[in-house]
Write a structure and sequence with these properties.
Helix content is about 35%, strand content about 25%. The chain has eleven helices and 13 strands. The relative contact order is 0.17. Mean pLDDT is about 95; it is low at about 1-5.
Length: about 325
């Protein structure tokens, strides 16, 4: 949600005391405290196709939208579908496959689809608005990181590069399958493990890339960050693709922005763009006290996370150092 809301910070909005997380900070979802009980978590996300298979596109879109709720430590409850469809160019049967894919992931998440809205559009679009709940005492936000926290990443990077490779007919079957597995995997169990071990700072790695989302977490927590680029897990073959120029435009924009707050040292240009690669339905980036980092990695492994890797730490200062 943070990608969409950035320009809204300048608007005149009602400052309601029940809003725990709103436009004042670049977080993954909005949070509204109910009078008695838990707080509501609300977010939405939608996008154009990033894979060729309609069913898988629906699955990816649903997992991506749900991820914002998990990044806050919440539990999704209900969903509303958002559809733009060129009905004169693409059959409605294809849209049914997209929606069937989305519904399958919602069912896995035990999130109820209540309805939705569709319009005629020149380009197909699909996504979901998600409402969930969270215990404010256990909520994870961008602003709760502390010096000394270890940074744990739960999915490998490279979905943006592979999506571009698919569009250019450069992706292998192995890469497509691996990327689809990453993008359709829920962040639910990773969030539960993190909350259970006392993590209170997290974000999901999506359109701004690892560096962009880490910078938001670090800035909101008024700390700096260090990343060991050798420890960052990657999807198969993305170094070769990036070296051949198979790079999304969004990743290039992310890297240009990251140059303002990142000290790269002697890091190869390929790894710089990978760390800035615009992800879809990426993993959680969790900041947890150092003494609990090994326990979190072990819990993530038991929960079946695709990766469970300490990639760096939060430090005094500002900005990001990559070594």
């Amino acid at each position: 949600m943070a990608q969409v809301l950035r320009p809204l910070h300048e608007l005149e909005v009602i400052r309601h005391p029940a809003v725990l997380v709103g436009l004042d900070q670049p977080d993954d979802a909005g949070v509204y405290q109910l009078a008695d009980g838990p707080a509501l978590v609300q977010t939405l996300d939608f996008f154009t196709p990033i894979v060729d298979d309609a069913f898988d596109w629906g699955r990816i879109a649903a997992a991506n939208a749900l991820s914002d709720v998990y990044a806050m430590g919440g539990r999704p409850l209900t969903a509303l579908a958002i559809v733009g469809w060129p009905r004169e160019k693409l059959p409605l049967e294809l849209l049914a496959e997209v929606q069937r894919g989305g519904a399958s992931v919602l069912a896995e998440a035990e999130c109820t689809l209540l309805g939705g809205h569709s319009i005629d559009d020149l380009e197909p679009k699909f996504g979901l608005a998600i409402t969930g709940v969270v215990d404010p005492a256990q909520m994870m936000t961008n602003s709760a990181g502390a010096v000394g926290d270890r940074l744990v990443l739960t999915k490998p990077l490279g979905t943006g590069i592979i999506s571009t490779a698919i569009k250019r007919d450069r992706a292998t079957t192995e890469q497509i399958e691996a990327s689809t597995e990453v993008m359709t995997a829920l962040n639910r169990d990773a969030a539960r493990s993190a909350v259970g071990l006392g993590a209170r700072a997290a974000t999901d790695v999506t359109g701004f890339g690892l560096l962009g989302h880490l910078s938001e977490l670090a800035a909101a927590s008024t700390v700096g960050a260090r990343i060991d680029h050798r420890s960052v897990p990657l999807l198969p073959g993305i170094e070769s693709l990036a070296r051949d120029g198979v790079i999304p435009a969004g990743s290039k924009r992310n890297l240009a922005a990251a140059d303002e707050f990142t000290r790269f040292g002697e890091i190869d240009d390929v790894f710089r763009i990978i760390l800035a690669d615009a992800q879809t339905s990426g993993g959680l980036l969790i900041a947890i006290p150092a003494g609990r980092a090994d326990d979190l990695v072990a819990a993530l492994g038991e929960a079946g996370s695709l990766t469970a890797t300490v990639i760096g730490e939060l430090v005094e200062g500002s900005g990001i150092e990559v070594f």
